[in-house]
Design a protein that fits this description.
Elements lengths: L1 H23 L3 E7 L7 H8 L2 H4 L2 E8 L3 H9 L5 E4 L2 H8 L4 E9 L4 E4 L15 E5 L4 H13 L8 E5 L5 H5 L5 E4 L3 H7 L3 E5 H4 L4 E8 H6 L1 H20 L1 H11 L5 H13 L11 H14 L8 H4 L9
Parallel strand pairs: 1-2, 1-3, 6-7, 6-8
Antiparallel strand pairs: 3-10, 4-10, 5-8, 5-9
Helix pairs in contact: 2-11, 2-12, 4-5, 6-14, 8-13, 11-12, 12-13
C-alpha cells in the first residue's frame, strides 16, 4: 500500500512539475512583417489586442509595415522576422529565386474590391461601364487586374470602350467626387468612405470571387523545420482570431478603430462589417486549393506569373488543418 501511495504522489508531483514548467515557459518572441498596415489584416491585430498570441505563448514584439509583399517576405527569409502577411503569390516569386517559404494560414479571403459611383449612375450590369470614365489604382494592382478582367469578360475593350484613369492606390475617390470620373474601383476603407460621402456601391467583386486567397500568413521552410510548434501555435492563434471576429464583430470594430484612429469611426465600423459579411475575413485559417488557384489565376491573367505554381508547392496546410 505504501508503494502505491508513493507512486501516486510521485506521479502527481511529476504532472504538477510539467504543468508548472509549461506555465512558466517563456513565450516565443516574434516579429511580424506586413506588406502594408491594412484593414485586410485585422485578424492579426485582433489576435494581438485580444491576447490570443499571449494565450498561445507568443510574444509579438512588433507588427511592422514593410511597404510591399516582397519586402515583408524578405525579412522572413533573412531570419529577421518569423512571419509575414501578404499575397501567397509572393511565396511563389521568392521560390523562383531560391527563397524557401510557405503560406501557412489564410488572413483575407475573396476579392475585397468594389466599384462605387454617384447615386445617379444607372447600373444594371458591367456593360453599363461602356463609354464611362473609370478611375482605378495603378497596374498591376489587384483592383486594376479585376477591372480589366471584368471588362474583358463583358466584351468591352479597356482601351477603346472605357476611359480608364490610373491613380495611386488610395486616391481613387478624388477624381470621382470632383466629377472627373463616373466610377471608381476601390478597396476598403475607401468603399465606405465613399458611401459616407453619398456614393453607392454598384459592383461587388467578392461575389465573383468568394474563394480567393488574397492575403496569407507566410513563414520560412526553416522555421517550419526548426520550430513547427511555434508555427502551429501562430496559425492556431489566427484561427481563433478569425472565429472571434465573426462571433464578436463589435469588439473587432473597436480594435480596428484603435489601429486606424485617423479614420472616422463610423467608416471603420462599416468597412469591417462589409468585410465580415463578404467573407473577406474567412471562417477559419485553411487556405483551400480553390482559393489558392483563383489567386494564382488572377496573377497569370495580368502576366505576373508565367509558369505553374502548384498548391502543394506554395501552401503548407498541415497547421491550419489541425483543430
Amino acid at each position: 500500500m505504501n508503494k502505491i501511495v508513493a507512486w501516486v504522489c510521485a506521479a502527481l508531483f511529476t504532472a504538477g512539475s510539467v504543468n508548472a514548467s509549461a506555465a512558466d515557459a517563456k513565450p516565443d518572441r516574434v516579429l511580424v512583417t506586413e506588406a502594408f498596415h491594412s484593414l485586410l489584416y485585422l485578424p492579426v491585430y485582433v489576435a494581438k489586442h485580444q491576447g490570443f498570441f499571449e494565450k498561445n505563448q507568443i510574444d509579438v514584439t512588433s507588427i511592422r509595415s514593410a511597404g510591399s509583399g516582397p519586402t515583408a517576405l524578405a525579412a522572413v527569409l533573412s531570419g529577421e522576422a518569423q512571419f509575414s502577411v501578404h499575397g501567397p503569390e509572393h511565396v511563389g516569386f521568392a521560390q523562383q529565386k531560391g527563397g524557401k517559404a510557405k503560406a501557412v494560414s489564410a488572413v483575407a479571403n475573396s476579392a475585397p474590391v468594389w466599384i462605387v459611383a454617384k447615386p445617379d449612375f444607372k447600373f444594371t450590369s458591367p456593360a453599363d461601364l461602356k463609354g464611362k470614365r473609370v478611375v482605378v489604382g495603378l497596374a498591376p494592382g489587384t483592383s486594376n487586374t479585376l477591372l480589366l478582367r471584368l471588362l474583358g469578360q463583358t466584351g468591352l475593350n479597356p482601351k477603346t470602350d472605357v476611359a480608364i484613369n490610373e491613380v495611386q492606390n488610395g486616391s481613387e475617390l478624388g477624381p470621382l467626387l470632383a466629377g472627373r470620373a463616373d466610377a471608381a474601383v476601390v478597396y476598403e476603407p475607401q468603399a465606405d468612405q465613399g458611401v459616407g460621402q453619398g456614393l453607392k456601391v454598384i459592383y461587388d467583386f467578392t461575389r465573383d470571387y468568394p474563394e480567393y486567397a488574397f492575403s496569407t500568413i507566410n513563414t520560412s521552410e526553416k522555421m517550419i523545420a526548426d520550430n513547427p510548434q511555434l508555427v502551429a501555435r501562430f496559425v492556431k492563434t489566427i484561427n481563433e482570431s478569425l472565429a472571434f471576429i465573426h462571433q464578436n464583430p463589435d469588439v473587432a470594430k473597436q480594435v480596428a478603430r484603435q489601429e486606424f484612429a485617423a479614420l472616422e469611426g463610423s467608416v471603420v465600423d462599416a468597412a469591417v462589417q462589409r468585410m465580415i459579411d463578404s467573407n473577406v475575413y474567412p471562417a477559419n485559417a485553411i487556405i483551400s486549393p480553390q482559393a489558392f488557384t483563383t489567386a494564382i489565376d488572377i496573377q497569370k491573367f495580368v502576366g505576373n506569373i508565367t509558369q505553374d505554381m502548384p498548391y502543394t508547392q506554395i501552401v503548407d496546410g498541415q497547421f491550419a488543418a489541425k483543430p
